[in-house]
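Let us practice reading a record.
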Amino acid sequence: MNIPINLFMWIMAFLPIIVLLILMIKFNWGATEAAPVGLMITIFTGLVFYKADIRLLASESAKGVWNALIILIIVWTAILMYQVGDEAKAFLVIRNGMRKLLPNELLLVLAMGWIFESFLQGITGFGVPVAVGAPLLIGIGVKPLWAVIIPLLGQAWGNTFGTLGAAWDSLAMSAGLSAGSKEYLVTAMWTAAFIWFWNAIGGFATCWFYGKGKALKKGFPAVALMAIIQGGGELLLSQVNTTICCFVPACISLIVILLLGRVKMYSEEWSIADSPIMNREGQAQGSEAPSDMSLVQAFVPYFLLSALTLIVLLVKPVNAFLGQISFGLSFPETSTGYGHVNAAVESFSPFSPFTHASMFLFISAIVGLLYYKKHGWIREGGVKRIFVKSVSMT
């Protein structure tokens, strides 16, 4: 293999990414418009500068499409679950319920803008935490701009291992890391350690935005505890099962912050009157939420998702039985004019449908839909709206 290593060849390799970034950032193109341009440039440079033939390009493109489809299934099922909750107005019930449980306004903002977003990121991702979190924060009196900024920061730590490990699986697959190998576990450990730092930063930054030093002092114990549970829990579980290493700590942190609302330090009403992120006038009262839906009922799909995920992934006999069904595409060996060889693959990126994150999300979404519909919280035509919106958003 004699690939020329020089600045020009490096620029050609980087060119599709540069063009993609310029089109999206400078010219405000969407990904669906910019990505095909990047793909065309990749094909051109592959043919002209890297001596790839049509057979190689077709083979590698097919691999990319297969990987994308596996992730796309998670995207759709995650958004389907969000649309079910949105149609039933379950998120409004969650907002109102948490407002009653957390009289300390700073703790409420942390819960709605950091902890609940982390929980949603662990399950769904793909913008859902911000789509859900921003309206909920506005409902408790947060100014619209901050209602977007805080969830963006709050869910960021969960991007890598969130969505039941979808992004991490894609990264590990792209890097050629075999699940369970020494390199895989070491990489997961260092990734989680780095993320832990930013998880804490997200909590402390939210306190600072709310009321600078005074809020930071008040919120420090809560943020420190949440960071240990979320970041520390993710670090530990990254060595056990990367699929649940964000999801499980996020679930625990959601329960713990509600319990903190009963601790003496946070159980009484407390707020900063001149908080720069709060709008004290015209707060939503939440009367539009179903009056007969409890906080527990609003969380039913998420309870089911938690149970399914933990049982299938952690109970080895169940996992082994369901994991027997697996399939992937086979690809022949390909090589470039420079002698770079892509080995033949018998089953590329095998897909196990019954142990895949999308299956947990889909079952939970459908059961949640039936449960909400049975109680009359899904209006006429709601089922059709849910599926149309989920496909459109995907």
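A brief commentary: The first strand starts at residue 327 and ends at 331.
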